[in-house]
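Tokens in:
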């Protein structure tokens, strides 16, 4: 069995979790799916473009070993040296324009690799172009981990909801804001909520994108572009973050049984365009999001065939995100057979 060659564009927390997961699932992948694998390329801002034709030892990669490898100066040289069958793109999010990830993904597709990403921005700014390129090359562009970690969202529509018409959707898309709001409900400050989210590993050092609603907006736009097929950019979405909520307001709302959540909403209008917003809303126990707490995430779909369909990802973590990438890889390679 010839091993598939993998390239990792980005090898931070998600990339490292994915490498560990491939090791854990190696026997199952080989036995049940006919997938043997080796990592022949790893590229990061800190270490540069690295390749090893015989494949890297994962333990060495995870320990930042000085194992022998070749170096390249750009993505094209790296792809030519690593010759990956699949490229996993997990570089940092650029919410302004999706670069340089978009150019990296184009290069990988042109080189004949499937592209699997957890990066929302390329799907927001360049989905149609990237997907058209993938199809022209007989490859797959997959991105299940971009919205609800590994919970099925895009694959749900791609595989199990043919000809169902989406009328609208709503979601709790950001773990950081959940944790901050619940910390403040307990009488603690906004800054203490941020610290708690950081200690849980769900918030960045600068949580601005989360608390101001930009992370949720990017996810709305990705869903609109892919599932609805209607172009939607971040500037088109009405936005209100959570900074204006005080602990007293949040405590009162919780005591009334109508706590605040940062809710993303989108409605498909008759002309196919989308009206969307992200803002704090009070929810009740009967609401689809009434039980969504802590780091959990959720999305609720309204369809012509199904009045309401809710998917909840309970307490997702790095392994959850990594699993979404692994599952996409299995599906991409399955399409070759």
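Residues out:
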């Amino acid at each position: 069995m010839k091993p598939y060659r993998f390239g990792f564009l980005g090898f931070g927390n998600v990339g490292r979790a994915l490498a560990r997961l491939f090791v854990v699932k190696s026997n199952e992948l080989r036995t049940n799916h006919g997938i043997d694998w080796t990592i022949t390329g790893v590229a990061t801002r800190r270490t540069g473009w690295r390749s090893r034709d015989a494949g890297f030892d994962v333990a060495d990669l995870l320990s930042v070993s000085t194992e022998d490898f070749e170096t390249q100066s750009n993505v094209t040289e790296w792809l030519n040296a690593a010759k990956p069958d699949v490229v996993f793109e997990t570089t940092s999010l650029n919410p302004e324009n999706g670069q340089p990830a978009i150019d990296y993904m184009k290069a990988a597709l042109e080189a004949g690799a499937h592209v699997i990403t957890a990066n929302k921005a390329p799907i927001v700014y360049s989905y149609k172009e990237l997907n058209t390129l993938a199809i022209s090359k007989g490859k797959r562009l997959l991105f299940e981990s971009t919205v609800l970690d590994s919970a099925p969202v895009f694959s749900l529509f791609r595989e199990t909801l043919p000809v169902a018409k989406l009328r609208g959707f709503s979601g709790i898309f950001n773990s950081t804001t959940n944790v901050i709001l619940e910390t403040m409900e307990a009488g603690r400050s906004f800054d203490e909520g941020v610290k708690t989210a950081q200690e849980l590993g769900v918030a960045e050092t600068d949580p601005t994108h989360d608390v101001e609603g930009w992370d949720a907006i990017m996810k709305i736009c990705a869903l609109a572009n892919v599932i609805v097929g209607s172009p939607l950019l971040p500037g088109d979405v009405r936005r209100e973050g959570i900074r204006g909520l005080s602990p007293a307001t949040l405590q009162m709302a919780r005591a009334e049984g109508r706590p605040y959540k940062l809710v993303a909403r989108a409605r498909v209008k008759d002309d196919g365009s989308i009206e969307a917003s992200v803002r704090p809303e009070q929810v009740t126990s009967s609401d689809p999001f009434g039980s969504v707490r802590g780091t959990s995430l959720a999305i609720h779909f309204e369809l012509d065939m199904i009045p309401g369909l809710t998917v909840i990802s309970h307490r997702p973590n790095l392994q959850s995100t990594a699993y979404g990438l692994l599952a996409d890889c299995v599906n991409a390679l399955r399409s070759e057979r």
